[in-house]
Q: What sequence folds into this?
């Protein structure tokens, strides 16, 4: 079930909210758990067993870590192996076997393994819980149903943000329903829904038309249009989902940490990763980079640690060489910035402008790699962007790929990528005119987004496949 579907917006969410808000506090966790199970089963009922096994493994694993102190490291390792075993089989089995067939010219037959929705996200959440218990940062959760709620809470179940257990431990027991939080949550949800339906989907339609073509059948201008359109689609698709998840969390009394902070204004790739998919980057920092030694073991070791982290970041996103190369691409520039000091703040307009242009070039090229079906396609596409190739047959001219409405949404995407509207939800009630304008504008956005949902058959969520 998509957040941006009529079923969710006009049936599932209102019913769950009505039951939740009209029930006693003692029943809230049970209602949310039941709603979360129903939400997941709606799209993937056959994989409920996998999520249940994940909950059981981590419930027992954390108790073992806490109870058997003399063997807590072994308990942690076994529980993490079980978590990664589920993830490896469902996400990477086909990829590994396909590469073995290719490398050794074999023809091993295998059954296609379907990727369960959200497995990358809830597996990382479960492992953060185990590691927090191992480090003594929190106690093992003895209530099975509360741990189940943490792992499968529906607002962030399918595509994050990755909520670490120590950030939400207290909230599981004491999340309060307050009018201001509900009001904020509704507004935040509308903003996310609008980003998804009005900007991400529009930019996605432009990008898809271009990336469906062979790179040798369109001009460099169109190649750049496709790359930038996809960059906007990815950002507004995923940040829109995160906004909706954070908004839903607020409605039900939870506070989820921010997942995006205007990454496209960054002046280095290091800064970009402090602003992009914050929950994932902080997860890798806290649970992998720092345990490997971080930046405290000399420059060579730091570079190796960064290389490992970004290789795994690429691999986490999907079982494809394009994702792995994309991760290595970002890791390379972060290592270069670490060595040269490029990632440090400096004064001067033109220096910062040049750094900003450099960062845009790096992540836009990275998104081309990310979007491409294979490495050869990505290489040809990027060559077309920077050194126009000999085009014998241009399939379509520029107006085919982008119309007037899409140009308007393109401008809106640029405006919403900078912190121009950053404080729109913080307008004081004392300023009645501004407060009223914001509320009316959000209502209009909601109505337009709802009409778009009803009328459109194009409604992908990119990060569902991760």
A:
């Amino acid at each position: 079930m998509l957040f941006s579907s009529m079923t969710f917006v006009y049936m599932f969410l209102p019913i769950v909210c009505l039951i939740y808000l009209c029930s006693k506090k003692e029943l809230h966790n049970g209602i949310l758990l039941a709603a979360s199970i129903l939400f997941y089963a709606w799209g993937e009922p056959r994989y409920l067993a996998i999520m249940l096994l994940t909950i059981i493994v981590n419930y027992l694993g954390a108790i073992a870590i806490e109870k058997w102190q003399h063997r807590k490291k072994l308990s942690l390792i076994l529980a993490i192996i079980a978590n990664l075993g589920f993830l490896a089989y469902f996400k990477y089995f086909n990829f590994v076997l396909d590469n073995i067939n290719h490398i050794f010219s074999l023809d091993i037959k295998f059954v296609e393994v379907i990727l369960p929705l959200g497995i990358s996200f809830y597996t990382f959440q479960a492992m953060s819980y185990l590691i927090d218990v191992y480090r003594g940062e929190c106690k093992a959760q003895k209530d099975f149903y509360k741990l189940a709620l943490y792992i499968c809470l529906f607002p962030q179940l399918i595509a994050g943000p990755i909520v670490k257990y120590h950030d939400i431990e207290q909230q599981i027991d004491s999340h309060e329903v307050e009018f201001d939080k509900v009001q904020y949550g509704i507004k935040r949800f509308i903003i996310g829904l609008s980003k998804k339906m009005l900007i991400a989907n529009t930019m996605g339609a432009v990008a898809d038309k271009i990336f469906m073509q062979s790179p040798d059948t369109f001009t460099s201008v169109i190649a750049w249009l496709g790359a930038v359109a996809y960059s906007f689609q990815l950002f507004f698709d995923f940040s829109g989902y995160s906004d909706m998840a954070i908004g839903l969390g607020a409605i039900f009394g939870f506070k989820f940490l921010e997942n995006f902070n205007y990454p496209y204004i960054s002046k280095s790739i290091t800064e970009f990763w402090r602003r992009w998919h914050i929950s994932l980057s902080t997860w890798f920092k806290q649970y992998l980079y720092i345990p490997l030694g971080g930046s405290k073991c000399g420059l060579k070791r730091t570079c190796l640690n960064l290389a490992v982290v970004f290789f795994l970041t690429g691999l986490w996103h999907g079982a494809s060489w394009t994702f792995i190369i994309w991760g290595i691409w970002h890791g390379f520039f972060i290592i270069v910035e670490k060595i040269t000091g490029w990632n440090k703040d400096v004064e001067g307009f033109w220096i910062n402008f040049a750094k900003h242009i450099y960062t845009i070039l790096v992540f836009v090229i990275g998104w081309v790699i990310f979007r491409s079906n294979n490495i050869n396609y990505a290489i040809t596409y990027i060559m077309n962007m920077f050194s126009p190739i000999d085009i014998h047959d241009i399939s379509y001219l520029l107006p085919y790929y982008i119309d007037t409405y899409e140009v308007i949404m393109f401008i809106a995407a640029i405006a919403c990528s900078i912190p121009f509207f950053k404080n729109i939800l913080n307008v004081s009630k004392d300023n009645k005119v501004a407060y009223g304008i914001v509320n009316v504008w959000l209502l209009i956005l909601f109505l337009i987004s709802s009409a778009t949902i009803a009328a459109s058959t194009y409604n992908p969520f990119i990060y569902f496949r991760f």
